[in-house]
Amino acid sequence: MPKRTDIQSVLVIGSGPIVIGQAAEFDYSGTQACRVLKAEGLRVILVNSNPATIMTDPEIADATYVEPITPEFVEKIIAKEQPDALLPTLGGQTALNTAISLHQNGVLDKYGVELIGANVEAIHKGEDRDLFKEVVEEVRRKIGHGESARSYICHSMDDVLKGVEELGGYPVVVRPSFTMGGAGSGFAHNEEELRRIAGQGLTLSPTTEVLLEESILGWKEYELELMRDKNDNVVVVCSIENFDPMGVHTGDSITVAPAMTLTDREYQVLRDVGIAIIREVGVDTGGCNIQFAVNPEDGRVIVIEMNPRVSRSSALASKATGFPIAKIAAKLAVGYTLDEIPNDITQETPASFEPTLDYVVVKAPRFAFEKFPSADSTLTTTMKSVGEAMAIGRNFTEAFQKALRSLEKKGSQFTFTGEPGDKAELLREAVRPTDGRINAVMQAIRAGATPEEVFDATKIDPWFVDQLFLIKETADELAAAPELTPDLLAEAKRHGFSDHQIGEIRGLREDVVREVRHALGIRPVYKTVDTCAAEFAAQTPYFYSSYDEETEVAPREKPAVIILGSGPNRIGQGIEFDYSCVHASFALSDAGYETVMVNCNPETVSTDYDTSDRLYFEPLTLEDVLEIVHAEQQAGPVAGVIVQLGGQTPLGLSQALKDNGVPIVGTSPEAIHAAEDRGAFGRVLAEAGLPAPKHGTATTFAEAKAIADEIGYPVLVRPSYVLGGRGMEIVYDENRLEAYIAESTEISPSRPVLVDRFLDDAIEIDVDALYDGTELYLGGVMEHIEEAGIHSGDSACALPPITLGGHDIKRLRASTEAIARGVGVRGLINIQFALAGDILYVLEANPRASRTVPFTSKATAVPLAKAAARISLGATVAELRAEGLLPAKGDGGELPLDAPISVKEAVMPWSRFRDIHGRGVDTVLGPEMRSTGEVMGIDSVFGTAYAKSQAGAYGPLPTKGRAFISVANRDKRSMIFPARELVAHGFELLATSGTAEVLKRNGIKATVVRKQFEGTGPNGEKTIVQLIHDGEVDLIVNTPYGTGGRLDGYEIRTAAVARSVPCLTTVQALAAAVQGIDALNRGDVGVRSLQEHAEHLTAAREDQ
């Protein structure tokens, strides 16, 4: 049945900021869906608060609202746009929960909006654990297979304790209802753990409901990805098997597709159960994902859960099979059936053909525990990974080793040199699932463990264990052979060994191994992902490497540009870099080049097979990139490789690529060095006559002390060459400096520590600019709301700057131009300045696309990354202005007076991490970056824009109630005015004794509350931490003293996270929040689409 004619416009809800458990894969699915719906002639209205996404680009939807995803704001958009239908299944749990509440509070009925893609009943059946159990019972009655784990539903702590007795004792699994990425869930082995996990779970669940389940720890875990249409056609797109057994969240587990260890009969049972469930739940226009546990002893199958929406696994399944789930889900939602939708890749088969795989796919997660040193690194059912890499190979060992090297983390690849250590100890270590457990297992095998011992310790399926032994045996053969024969080398490559690993085993340099390999003619060939095991010809070049026979890369005429992506997401290098790569691909394609994308991150838009002309799903290591460049040079002319857009990963390869004769376009590797290297950059600044904060480099404590004494405390110390502020700290005295040097293990003459004067109370400013060798285009000037000393990725910022005048902008422009010229930039550059007193200091310059590019592009309505890609290949700013890619006159430094104000706010993952005692990790911001994502608020005045950014990131600011204030001495003077404003807005103030005293002297009434260490008062007066836990505080202002963040502050801030109370840790944020509260109380908060803002800006630019 063809598409429905009664729908003219659709509202799509995105997934908001990137958080752990809900990442870039929803940008990928949302972008696909919006494009499909638009191609079908529908008006597409999109709401998503995350500016770093491709889906929020003005050309993807017809009306794009970068507004908080809350029922209140979405209602304003519905009232304004009057859509016919709402599609909620593409924005993760955020979109689903928002749609459900709009349905429940009558908004959809009031405006006559129909939910498509999933009906409310199906969502409830899939999400509500009680109803889902009934679904599974029903399926068992019909087909005789499938059951749920025995469980008990609880709404209070008493229920929870009773539940454990009913289930027959510990361990039990605790799962809160309606949360995502396993938030708040865990295994409880005793009452203390149970009280802690369940207590937190009851708070996190929007329905204060948790489920206790019998433990199925150590069982095998599988997922099926299915789709169903309204004519009841069902396809199983992909089966995925977890390498780690039950007990580790599937997002944190290494996973393999297709499933490897099922017999055909077992697989048929899972299929039958899956198909029966999707029918019983009633998902009839879209995809869903179902998770199973299988008992390795008797084959008992338990259905764990289903997601009646496009999930993280759907992105993986789409990339693994070439079957675009989100795109097809969108078509089903508007009335098509599977047999009417053609397969994009073969263009001959319909979507009702199930994909067949003639290769193996392995996904490996990437973690960020080094950012949260106090966090417990055990992997549990609460997802903690921040990104993932995927690899494709002809066999499991090849795909597995490629996936591990794609993670680009020190020690992620197996090493086979050195002493393995004590077998018993390694096996003991392997029992606890952690980030690097797989390496401990390999070392245990090297130390002589048997397959049975490995299985007993880890419960990793014996087939996988056997594959690990196979890898180890290949390494042994390499080590023992008298010489590297062609057969031996080819064999090692077929098992996924990198040149680096082979070199390590043989005691050779990596480049020597490569020369030998090339001399022997052993090179990879590139195979196509074609959905049908080569039964039909593939029309889309989507490649993976393998040491096989024939290559499938077709010759071409047009010159190609190879774009290196950013690899797996991590803190400090996320989706913002992918955004720039995708933009470059679009812009260069329009300019007549053939675009080639290289990346290994399955969550992103860049690895979609229709983003670029050719896609190589490969690790971003020197070896892999050199082979791809070689293959492309065989196919036709290569104009060059772009390394400036994918963050630090490709930048780190640039010099080595150039040394190997690869043409690098844009900013040269030498220029990159001039900005990255301290000494070289110092010379650039000296020549331009620009001041930088006093600094020095040290390799010992004595040297560091001498520098600090000369500069004066506080100082900022950090290792050289880092991204995302790894290991930075603000040091206030000599004792802490000594401790820092003692703790920093990696200090050496080649890796010194940098000691800078820390500019207290300075305004930090970020500038993004384009430079073509003669002309500068200032993209935008962002003023940070928090003062210097907080990593720019973690601080909120405003564009246009709210307190800088025309004179300041002139100085910024001149300095930026001098630095860009001195460094030798061709394309984008990002510079951080600090304005202290009246001196403009240069903090650092990054000669690449920075994480603020998408935000700046949206705030000023200019596609900076597209322009940068064109400049890299020789276009000039003047030519791009003439073409209309850049504004004809003016730039981001001279915005019209009534330009909208955009505020970016960072989103932190605090709630995901606990230390080993179950306490939260401290939420104080510092010079090391810890945020996973960002949101944007946009409005005509700063106060409203800031309020929107807070609502998008942490939930709305309170407009009345109780505010608690406790600040460090240096902040007491500046807090008086904002505090007085809060009282004027009807807030009741609570404060600790010192702060209350200052407030009272200034005529501001405040109630004194007890500090945590004072304990409960004689008449039962609660301490501040107890008040927060009891939900009696609505807003918290707590600025830490120094970096130690005295313990009291730590307790207050972690309590704030646990109860999700807005907590401001700087006085600047308090001043901004007061302006926001003021705007909210006036009640005139409106919404405007990016397209309207852009139209307004363009008109105002022309009048200037």
Note the main sheet. 7 strands, antiparallel
Mean pLDDT: 86
* Sheet with the most strands: spatial strand order: 14-13-10-11-12-15-16
Annotation, overall tally of beta strands? 39
Terminal residue distance: 54 Å
Number of helices: 37
Radius of gyration: 29 Å
**Quaternary structure classification:** single chain
Helix content: 25-40%
Structural class: alpha/beta
Strand content: 15-25%
| Overall 3D form | globular
Low-confidence spans: 1042-1047
Task: Provide a quick synopsis of the model.
This protein starts with 8 loop residues before the first strand and ends with a helix. It has 1104 residues and is α/β, with parallel strands linked by helices.
Could you explain how this protein is built, in words?
The chain has 37 helices and 39 strands. Helices cover 38% and strands 19% of the residues. It has 1104 residues and is an alpha/beta fold. Mean pLDDT is 86; it is low at 1042-1047. The strands form seven sheets. A seven-stranded antiparallel beta sheet has the order 14-13-10-11-12-15-16, sandwiched between helices. It has a seven-stranded mixed beta sheet with strand order 17-18-21-20-19-22-23, with helices on both faces. It has a seven-stranded antiparallel beta sheet with strand order 32-31-28-29-30-33-34. A hairpin with a 2-residue loop joins strand 31 (827-836) and strand 32 (839-846).
